[in-house]
Amino acid sequence: MKKVFISHSFQDNPEENLNKTKKLLSKLRSEYPDILFISPLHLFSYFKQEVEKFREDIIQYCKHLLQECDEIWVYGKSEGCMKEAQYAKEIGVKVVWKYK
């Protein structure tokens, strides 16, 4: 099964971005039932009150997850999204830009 890491902005509006990503994942799951989507926003949402304190830890966790993925689909232009995309390029994971 193909594994796709979903990179989406979070920090500028955590609650709204979590909801947007939830809707996006629901749509993607319907369109691509044979893909396993990995959503770090959902995996690490328990950090939302202290995201700044643990930001570098979260980035490291995301890098570990990216090593297991076939692609990263980037839906934001945030610093975190850019770090994830850059790391994906470095390790040979295909980067698909989805933002407008």
Describe this protein's structure:
By secondary structure, the chain is α/β, with parallel strands linked by helices. The protein has one domain. The chain contains four helices and four strands. Strands 2-1-3-4 form a four-stranded parallel β-sheet. Helix 1 links the parallel strand 1 and strand 2. Helix 3 runs parallel beside helix 4. The radius of gyration is 13 Å and the shape is globular. It starts with a strand and ends with a strand. The mean pLDDT is 89.
Strands, helices and their partners?
Layout: E1 2-7, H1 14-31, E2 35-38, H2 40-43, H3 55-66, E3 71-74, H4 79-91, E4 94-97
Helix pairs in contact: 3-4
List keywords for this structure.
100 residues, alpha/beta, 4 helices
Could you tell me the radius of gyration in angstroms? Answer: 13 Å
pLDDT average, as an integer? Answer: 89
Helix and strand content put the structural class at: alpha/beta
Give the count of helical stretches.
Answer: 4
Brief write-up:
The N and C termini lie far apart (28 Å).
